[in-house]
What we know:
The complex is a heterodimer of chains A (about 260) and B (about 150).
Chain A: H1 10-29, H2 34-47, H3 50-70, E1 77-81, E2 84-87, H4 88-114, H5 117-127, H6 129-159, H7 166-197, H8 215-233, H9 236-260
Antiparallel strand pairs in A: 1-2
Chain B: H1 2-21, E1 38-44, E2 49-56, H2 63-73, E3 78-81, E4 88-92, E5 95-96, E6 105-110, E7 129-135
Parallel strand pairs in B: 1-7
Antiparallel strand pairs in B: 1-2, 3-4, 4-5, 6-7
Amino acid sequence: MNNRLSRHHSAAVAVYWLCGLLLLALAGSVWRQVGQLCAVGVVAALFLPRKRLVWAALTTLPFVLLTPLLNHNGTNVWFFIGYTPITWDAVVLGVQFAASMASLCLWMLLLAAWVDTSTLLLSLRRVAPRLALMLQMTLRTLPLLGKRAARTRETVKMRMPAATTRRQTLRAGAVGLQAWTMWNMEAGMDMAVQLKARGYGATRTTVYHAAKWRADDSLLLGAALLLTVAALLLDGWYGGAAGCLLALSAPVFFRRRQEEVPL
Amino acid sequence: MKRIWSITLVLAMALLLLAGCSGEKQPTATATLDPATKIVVSVRTLEKELYHFELARAEGDTALSVLQRGAKDANIAVALTGSDDMAYVSGIGGLKEKDQGDKSGWVFRVNEQFGMTSAGATVLKDGDKVEFLYSLDWGADWGMSY
């Protein structure tokens, strides 16, 4: 699922992704559009594995319970804690809030599953090659640092006797930190030398695109823009329907392109 | 995942427990009130009086405490921001501040006089009349001046 969009033109993918984000940001900031958010969430749920749905639902459950404890407005009182009212209105508000949060989570998960960072950065490479390269390297470095830290920890654990006192634990930590820092610095310097040798930064580099701009890219771009504008102009469930179509249209385009271009 | 389950379970149990404990109702003392000592609480908008409570004054009663006591007896929700001396009444019976414009909200007065302290810090005496008024213009429409 990760590279479903990788054969599409990166600009079309980037616009689609930005439309999704814009829709999310605006729908998220206007809590009246709960229907819109939930509809988008339901569509997103159709494409995601069940495990992720359970995770999204569970993370938002506390909102259902916390909202009535923090919000005491409403006309329908359920019960009182001392003089503090717990209202049914706040319970409903909590459910709405949780549903909206779950929808946002699902939509973000879906976007993350469809678009990877490399595809997005391809578009940026034409406009700002240095920035694109820096972003790409930074994004790839972060997990690398984690992996190196784990390997350093394992090595320190193997080579040093098991720490029994706090002093020994601190010493082992310091040794590990030193080794990890040196490793990263050396790797960074190596990378800099390699980039310099290949001429990065000296002149503008050419950009190779695996995918050429085609008719269905235009279709994807047009559909994304049109449906986003529609979702923004229309309120509530109509906006939700436009958002749903935006989500639904994507896999149709992507599957077709994948069939046409053999990997 | 386990932690989320635990938090959810604990919150759900707490909520149910609180709901179970809430059955006790304080008796309303309206029928046996002494006219000289009773406190009258009136909750009003510009158009009409929404609620009217009459309560016996207890030692240390404030404008806020009588409102809360009367509201609880009548099963009406009072929403606060802050507590005690720093409490601000943000909603009564579902009518909240800013519901009817940016300048709308609740102000209060005791015996037709607006005070300079919060409802939680205004201690009442026998026979006081407390009014909680829904203003559309930061109190100016009720004659409040700063």
